[in-house]
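Late entry, written up from scratch paper. The run itself happened at the end of the previous shift, but nothing got recorded in the book at the time, so transcribing now.
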Amino acid sequence: MPQLIWNGLFVGSFYALVALGYSMVYGIIKLLNFAHGDLYMLGAFSGFALLGTLGAVPGGSLAALFVVLVLTMLVTGLSGVALERVAYRPLRGAPRLSLLITAVGASFALEYGVRIIAGPNPRVYPVRLDGTAVSVLGARITVQQLVLMVVALGLMVTLNALVMRSRQGRAMRAIALDPKGSLMMGIDVDAVISRTFFIGSALAGAAGVMAGAYYGKIDFLMGFIIGLKAFTAAVIGGIGNLKGTMLGGLVLGLLESFSTDWFGGEWRDVFAFGFLILFLTVRPTGLLGARVTERV
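Output as recorded:
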């Protein structure tokens, strides 16, 4: 039982990091950015390329990985801003179906753009985080897992503090409530939305680097399934609610861990998405989501 709980929390922290970008964008402009999972993939490949040049950083592979993590967050953050500026901003006043189709198109563009550049074959990460496991309350835990978990939780706590306590966060929350009113109050709505895309995309890129370094293999389709899982986590927790999204990621990770033990690994995704369907019939707003009335 302790091992299943630890495995679920570890995987769930990755889901939560990626899901936060979904939740932030949806909370502000009501867009389901289905290209978000591919920014996770882009982060993994950006880290792969950067590690090829920074592998000899003094201090060893962990120092190089930390430097690459920061640089990758910058790369994916700027990529998210460019995606919003080119693909989404011109259609902001269009029907939501147009935005949804554009998001799907952007997802395929990122996937197969990386395929053209990096090739179709999986790549082995230059840095692999593994180590001797220690037993804690019956669970086998490695120092590398603890480090990645602490980094993920640190990023989530920092984001929550930014949104809830900073001036930028107040602007985000104001736009989520009333974009037109925020504009009349002097808030630069376009700039705030761009920063939101930057933050969400940077978190997805960080998760991509950590996943590549831990699992050791990346490919150009790796963002598809985790994008769906992150979306599922956001919906379970209450899409648009940051704390709910973090909770949803951990819940999904635990569900997958227990379902793998009970039914086998081949039933993991069936169980996760089946639970989503059943859960939404009982609580369509998610665990911490609130029922709201849309403005017209």
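Residues 2-29 form the longest helix (28 residues).
(Scratch paper discarded after transcription.)
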